[in-house]
Amino acid sequence: MKSIQSQNPAAHSLKNVWMQVRDPVKYWLAGVGVTYSVALFVWIFFRHSYPFLHVITRGDARVYIQIARDGYQFGDPRVAFYPLYPILIHFLSLLLFFKINFYSLAYSALIVSGAASLWAMIFLDRLCRRYLNDSARRLCLLLWAISPAGVFLATGYSMSLFFAFLFAGFLAAEEEKWWKTGGYVALACLTWPMGYIAYMAIVINIVYLLYRRKIPRISFAMIGGLLLPLIAISVHICYFGIAFHDPFASFHAEQGNWQQHFLPVWKYPGFIARTIVGTAGLSWFPLILELSYCALMACILFYAFLLKDPRYSFLLKFFAGAVLVSILFRSSGSAIPRFLITAFPLFFVIADRYHSQWAHRLVITLGFLYLNLVGTAIYMMSGPYF
Fold first, then answer.
1. Which helix (DSSP H) or strand (DSSP E) does residue 134 occupy?
2. 235 CB contacts (<8 Å, ≥6 apart)?
3. At residue 238, does pLDDT exceed 80?
């Protein structure tokens, strides 16, 4: 007698797909649930005079919504925000709500961010399966879901979309599928400035493979994969050159508490000095974040090199790309995002080293959860609201 699975191959196929994505979906729901639970708590007890949607679409989320509604304006500092995410929420708003206003765009932003964060979790799971055992893989997914910066992955920010492209690009590079790698990295470069880190990491990966003679020579697919992100960046630059007569408008954006969105490294000592004496117009917080970011990157680089574990080779390429980009540019405005992007390999290392002892897993999980709850509450409670 034939089994039910053999009689119904479609059901069997769906079951296999579900088994592959079950863990990512589970941890994604946990992370989103934590963020929205904190948001609901803040709204009920502290911000009940505002609509709940205003509580979860704050800060840069509001800027993306404004770009999706009004587009870029000449001399507007919002040109520092890259276009792919607001384009997606603009068209999704038209598709789902047949109109463009704050509420339709805000709901569309939450849908895009939620779907992208799930996609990122699925690709992170596939990346972890290549290097970690099941226990370490699940711990890595959990830490990513409840990371201190998890609020930026569940609300109306472009970071979730960026990490979806980043993880997909890294997985394609590990599988040496260069056209797919270039396509994902090109989309990452149009989503967030930190896409340049992903591009440099891919370049280093190809150079490494050629140097180690793991591939005989550079192929047409490699060249195409390297050119796709450059084409995407060129289109972005040309748009600002034609529209605003300033190809590098996104680099020159400046307003209020922002210094230049990207600050060349040779100007960075002066920025630190002006911050210390109080003339840079910034608080100590961005400077502390910057210095903490540099210290964290240095520690993980040293740790990864010290391990000399081949499983960490892709992390070293990632960090090398981040270091090269950081040598060229510093940004007070992107300190938190770069802290988050640096933390991704940190989760991988922590999960790999400390997954075997339940006490270690418990302490690490509670620590991350505490930081997540505090950070999310502070973010939701801080003003202004619009």
1. helix 134-145
2. none
3. yes
Distance from C-alpha of 98 to C-alpha of 6, rounded to nearest angstrom: 44
Specify burial of residue 12 (Cβ count, 10 A radius: 0-12, 13-18, 19+): middle
pLDDT range class, residue 243, cuts 50, 70, 90: confident
Residues 296, 342 contacting (CB under 8 angstroms) = yes
Q: What's the pLDDT at 174?
A: 81
The SS3 of residue 261 is: coil
**Cis peptide before 193, with omega less than 30 degrees from 0?**
no
Secondary structure E strands in the chain: 263-264, 329-330
pLDDT, tens only, 256-309: 334 444 444 445 555 555 545 444 444 555 556 556 656 666 666 565 555 555
Amino acid at 359: A
Q: Give yes or no for a contact between 20 and 138, defined as CB atoms under 8 angstroms apart.
A: no
Tokens of 219: 């192929």
The counts of H helices and E strands in the chain are 18, 2
- 313, 105 contact by CB (below 8 A): no
Distance between CA 206 and CA 317 in Å, rounded?
A: 10
Q: What is the pLDDT of residue 49?
A: 76
| Residue range 330-369, pLDDT digits in tens | 443 455 555 556 566 677 777 877 888 888 888 888 888 8
Lookup: tokens for 345: 């390999």
- Cα distances (Å, whole numbers) of residue 207 to 117, 159, 162, 218, 324: 30, 28, 24, 9, 15
Q: Where are the domains of the chain?
A: 4-381
Closest CA to 143 of 318, 298, 346: 346
Task: List pLDDT tens digits, range 171-205.
Answer: 888 888 899 999 999 999 899 877 777 787 788 77
Amino acid at 274: R
Whole-number Å distance between alpha carbons of 92 and 68: 10
What local confidence, expressed as pLDDT, does residue 317 receive? 64
